[in-house]
TrEMBL record, chains A, B:
<keyword id="KW-0720">Serine protease</keyword>
<dbReference type="InterPro" id="IPR043504">
    <property type="entry name" value="Peptidase_S1_PA_chymotrypsin"/>
</dbReference>
<comment type="similarity">
    <text>Belongs to the peptidase S46 family.</text>
</comment>
<keyword id="KW-0031">Aminopeptidase</keyword>
<keyword id="KW-0645">Protease</keyword>
<comment type="function">
    <text>Catalyzes the removal of dipeptides from the N-terminus of oligopeptides.</text>
</comment>
<protein>
    <recommendedName>
        <fullName>Dipeptidyl-peptidase</fullName>
        <ecNumber>3.4.14.-</ecNumber>
    </recommendedName>
</protein>
<dbReference type="InterPro" id="IPR019500">
    <property type="entry name" value="Pep_S46"/>
</dbReference>
<keyword id="KW-0732">Signal</keyword>
<feature type="signal peptide">
    <location>
        <begin position="1"/>
        <end position="23"/>
    </location>
</feature>
<dbReference type="Pfam" id="PF10459">
    <property type="entry name" value="Peptidase_S46"/>
</dbReference>
<keyword id="KW-0378">Hydrolase</keyword>
<dbReference type="InterPro" id="IPR009003">
    <property type="entry name" value="Peptidase_S1_PA"/>
</dbReference>
Length: 725, 725
């Protein structure tokens, strides 16, 4: 390693020397917060930033991962607050025709009435977060490509296995700054979770899909769960004998008013962002990936709708897939619009150019630049087949019968290895899931539609330049539209995989038996499999190379930012992060101003009496009564009583996974629960644009009012140390 | 006439005694403005209110009726400013494939390049407005029902004929306060109108249907025309020898800045409002008329779409009708939503109850109340058959072939009378239009769809209670679904009216010849005609009774309002009116605030490159350049140059027909041109709700900037006495 590279690496570890960070952008590791103490204080935080860095201290030890998203302990008896939509599976699991908890909501009158969650539902408390970069990279050093990838993978698996030797813990390795650093994350896994309080769906999900991503918003998207443990205080499966878990700390719900401009911070588990990707990746995303995704999904939607136009049964079979395609398309278009609005290609390109120019002035820049150039070459290589890769992914993932045939062949192939060495997704424990998928294919399939979809996608594949072609695909599907039609007709006339029982029995067959099958689709899948495996290998080799090479880029970026007096947070990766900012209005477009707080008046305005705007009668009555007590915001509304707020908007930095994140005030009190972003912020996974990035929260005063006046639960208010009204 | 009634009538004529009127609501006759001088002054008007009352003085004599809407003279040489959409027919008339003025806009380089409008296009200058109530009602006194109606009708026709004896004038009688007063309106009719300056459609109609009724808005909806007269100064048909008309006055476009809160007033020709209808009519409109209109149109749309689902040609034939149905439905739903939001049933009911309670305290209330009760009885009688009347109107108006057959029979029937006594719409001068309709039926018709539509509507008719049935309809269509199907099948199998030539020859036939026709649809129409004529008679008799009786209600309302210190403007009836108010923001719903001025930034934000958001390149370039000169609003935008405004919002009281109305500032200078309302105000034809009623205007600074910097016309700026940049 050259001097320069060592120097850059050293810089990356000395964030504490940094000055002012960019305002409000940032999903900080708690351990970084002391490094940006000055900015945190300047923004209005009244606590000690270094307390926030300690996972074992309040408030961080009160923040949990729940149902794949975020939440927090809000009482000393293991009460967990998260979103209604995060706990939705638990509510659904406990609903029956004669007791519809989705529709009616639920209030457990006492602990004995708290209802067990589905057995796979988890509350995870992060108890350890240790840097193990040297251990993870020890074997990888000197390797390249697939070798580098496999070395990191093995070291990761070993570290996880060792960590999980202690029962009751789930462990994982988090990759920070794209292979620069690795952390071992250790989480206490609470397996007995129970439903305590849920509002009716028409409150928790008020506005439904129509209001999804929309501001102004009026949802009471919260639910209270409780974590239980065995009598020994250790994680346990559900048992009536279990006792409430005593968390090391819990958050106190605030009883103060909050208003525009107030400091706010949030902790949670954001899923994935791409903010530090290279300029060429930004350009590819905006100039090719998103537009071509829009075109791909539009084409698939049109094809399915046209093929199913005269067949009601086919239309029903594909309804869910089409709906999902439309969501994907809408989201891609929103992301594209947002990134264009933010001029993201130019902004990132200029920023990278400035970094490279700065790097030029540093000693020993050549080695760094060589690594960056090598990373760029790997990316370029991937982009050379991007059209093909997109089409083949759609062909193999968005069909039902062809996908089933490939899955059956792949499973047989993997079964030839020891279970631990099988590809993820094809291990013994995955077979239940695969069986489910094969069964489900039945309800989602019509031969004419699948053939039309394949014809549509493969016609595009056939039109690609020769360099993007794959021999096995050419053989199986032909190289002209005429051949394609004949091949597809023969394939679907010659398969019995449309029969569910046959699919399931094929799944049990070994590779040798399958090889003798005369089923045309199974034969086609067998011919395609080597190509699929080969492309997967190539993809892992590229991933390995990028894992090896990207740290040069990241370290240069971190050092460059340091020269600008700015800290760098790692891109989101489902680990615990903190962001801070304030309650913020928004001007989404010329002539329109969004107020940062909504009131119950908006519930009445939106109410139509039909889903998703069917406010329950008790809520409408309580609003009409106007008895808001201690939960009213005095600065809003026309009456001297003030107005009852519902949701509010902050400029906090969030992404998917931050659902249920607790929002804290300057004193660390819980003022809201994060549950969504605005539509204009859909592009924030790539670029944080302070003009448009907002997060949407349920105001805790709305929760308190509902629990005090509308669907009363005085015992829970008391448990949370909150006033009864 | 009782003493009380005379007293109330006297009060109605003494509006000058009134105190404060309700703020901002009101479409005032210019003659009323001195009566509300105090409020006008208090609102910020700096001129003399009594000057506004004079039609022969500025500014009123500069306000014109143009192309059915409103406009104003803006130079001493007859330059008329109105909306792009009001002048659209003129632009279209002058467009050719090789010279697309709709797409490209138009700038006449000099007067010789000004392009003649379509020959029926008119600019009308109101020169007389005289109360002739006594003359109109002289013969009607003592009569009732149809007799009253015919007496008013004859007196009206006589007054118009006498007034129009002077060439160059068009006259009409305006009914104010529902039969309380009648005015003879005399208008100079300028018949040679020419196109001078039009922006490209992508500016004039930026946002198109998508932005229709929408705020924030970004359309440059203006066009300049010029009125010409003969060399003798009198109105004349187009001739190259004509000379520009010299108006008695013109408005000066303002060069000052305008901002939120500034005084604004507007003059124009609002079409029709229903604000002073009785409480029962409000209840009927909101509780029955609008919901049932929504259901009726939704049913017709569904029927046509379903019947045409498998027939592409039928779908094309009905596309325009379905689009128009969808517009009607959307508007009805918007009106319904708005009236519910404003709680209009309750508000009007409480207001009327208060009026009646007040009336109780007056001397001689009995006679007034008797008339009001009689009016209510007439309304009740009409409502008793409202379902039937709605269905029969749809059956006879929304079909193509059946309607053609009825039209042919009706025309033959009317031809039996002297031309002057024929029903309006069936006179000799109407036959060109009828021929056109009969030809058009060809392109808008498919037998299966028309039969399905009739089956759908008549099934509802058949299900009505007996009291609503009409013998002739029962005979022709049967009284059960089975009979209906058989009758419709026979009718459409036995008609040749699908043949255009046959329709046109049938139109020429006299009643005797038609009576011998064995065409099934013509026979059906002949059977239905007596019922249609009878219902029409009944309707005119009701109209006559209401004309006789409503004045009692209106006079009571006016007197009641006087007791509250408020003046009453008559409901709109396409006569010249004035409203005043201010530039106003709006809070359309919880959490959303609309700024009252938009800027060119919004054009860039909305630009997609595709209609209706395809801003022309010169406009985008000029915006990017940011050279806004004297037309920038210094208080807006981020730059020190300020921002270029586009449109603005006022709380002025407007309705359809106010398109092109000049908007004046406190000094009477022209600051904007009205062109639309916001969606929330769609219900304002029934109720003015100050929270939601806004009018949308083109800021004259945007027009000036376009004419100075984007599509320059320095000669026109000079003519309007405006700076060159």
């Amino acid at each position: 390693m050259s001097t320069m590279r060592r120097r850059v690496l050293a810089l990356s570890l000395s964030l504490s020397m940094l000055g002012a960070a960019q305002a409000d952008e940032g999903m900080w590791m708690p351990s970084q917060l002391p490094d940006i103490a000055k900015q945190l204080k300047a923004a209005g935080f009244k606590g000690r930033p270094r307390d926030l860095a300690e996972l074992a201290r309040p408030p961080m030890n009160a923040v949990v991962k729940v149902g794949g998203a975020s939440g927090a302990f809000v009482s000393g008896d293991g009460l967990v607050l998260t979103n209604h939509h995060v706990a939705f599976g638990v509510i659904q699991y406990n609903s029956k025709p004669e007791r519809d908890l989705i529709r009616d909501g639920y209030i457990a009158a006492d602990r004995s009435a708290e209802l067990p969650a589905n057995p796979d539902y988890r509350v995870l408390v992060t108890t350890g977060f240790d840097r193990i970069t040297d251990r993870i990279l020890a074997d990888a050093k000197g390797k390249q490509g697939r070798g580098y990838y496999d070395a990191v993978d093995s070291a990761t698996k070993a570290a996880v296995a060792e960590c999980e030797r202690e029962p009751g813990y789930r462990c994982s390795v988090a990759n920070m700054y794209y292979g620069t650093d690795f952390y071992l994350v250790r989480q206490l896994e609470l397996r007995d979770v129970r439903l305590v309080y849920a509002p009716p769906n028409d409150i928790g999900n008020y506005g439904g899909e129509v209001d999804n991503f929309v501001w102004p918003r009026h949802a009471g998207d919260f639910t209270l769960l409780r974590a239980y443990v065995g009598k020994d205080g250790k994680p346990a499966d559900y048992s009536p004998d279990n006792v409430p878990y005593t968390p090391p700390a819990h958050l106190q719900v605030s009883t103060r008013n909050v208003k525009e401009g107030d400091f706010a911070m949030l902790a949670g588990y954001p899923g994935v962002t791409f903010r530090h990707r290279m300029a060429s990746e930004f350009a590819n995303q905006i100039q090719w990936q998103l537009p071509s995704r829009v075109a791909l999904y539009q084409g698939m939607i049109d094809t399915i709708e046209s093929a199913g136009a005269k067949d009601e049964a086919a239309r029903v079979s594909y309804a869910a897939q089409v709906r999902s395609f439309k969501n994907t398309l809408k989201r891609a278009q929103g992301e594209l619009d947002g990134l264009r609005r933010s001029d993201a290609v130019r902004v990132r390109r200029d920023d990278e150019a400035a970094m490279l120019a700065w790097l030029e002035q540093q000693r020993d820049a050549a080695a760094i630049k060589a690594d960056i150039a090598s990373a760029q070459a790997v990316l370029d290589q991937g982009m050379a087949t991007r059209e093909r890769d997109q089409l083949i992914a759609a062909i193999t993932a968005q069909t039902q019968l062809l996908r089933s045939a490939i899955t059956v062949q792949r499973l047989a192939h993997e079964r030839g290895k020891p279970d631990a060495q099988r590809e993820a997704g094809y291990q013994q424990r995955d077979e239940v899931l695969i069986t489910g998928q094969l069964k489900q294919a039945q309800r989602r399939y019509a031969p004419a539609v699948e053939k039309a979809l394949l014809a549509h996608l493969l016609a595009q594949y056939q039109a690609l330049p020769a360099a993007q072609h794959v021999a096995e695909f050419d053989t199986v599907f032909g190289t002209t539209p005429v051949q394609l039609k004949a091949k597809l007709d023969a394939m679907y006339a010659g398969t019995k995989l449309g029969d569910e029982a046959l699919r399931l029995s094929a799944m049990q067959a070994d590779a040798a038996t399958l090889a003798t099958s005369n089923d045309a689709l199974l034969q086609a899948a067998a011919s395609l499999l080597p190509a699929i495996l080969r492309m997967e290998d190539e993809s892992k080799a590229s991933a390995g190379e990028l894992l090896r090479l990207r740290p040069a880029y990241m370290k240069a970026l971190i050092a460059f930012r340091e020269s600008q007096g700015r800290a760098v947070y790692p891109d989101a990766n489902s680990t615990l992060r903190v962001s801070y900012g304030r309650i913020s209005a928004m001007d989404p477009r010329d002539g329109v101003h969004y107020q940062p707080l909504t009131t119950v008046q908006g519930i009445v305005e939106k109410h139509t009496g039909e889903e998703p705007f069917n406010a329950p009668r008790p809520l409408l009555d309580a609003i009409a009564k106007g008895d808001f007590g201690s939960t009213a915001e005095p600065s809003l509304g026309n009456s001297s009583r003030g107005a009852q707020t519902v949701d509010f908007l902050t400029n906090l930095d969030t992404t998917g996974g931050n659902s249920g994140s607790p929002v804290l005030d300057a004193q660390g009190k819980l003022i809201a629960l994060n549950f969504d972003s605005n539509w204009e912020a859909v592009s924030a996974s790539w670029m944080f644009d302070p003009r448009y990035k907002r997060a949407i929260h349920v105001d805790m005063r709305y929760m308190r009012w509902l629990m005090a006046k509308v669907y009363p639960a005085p015992h829970l208010l008391k448990e949370m140390n909150l006033p009864a009204e």
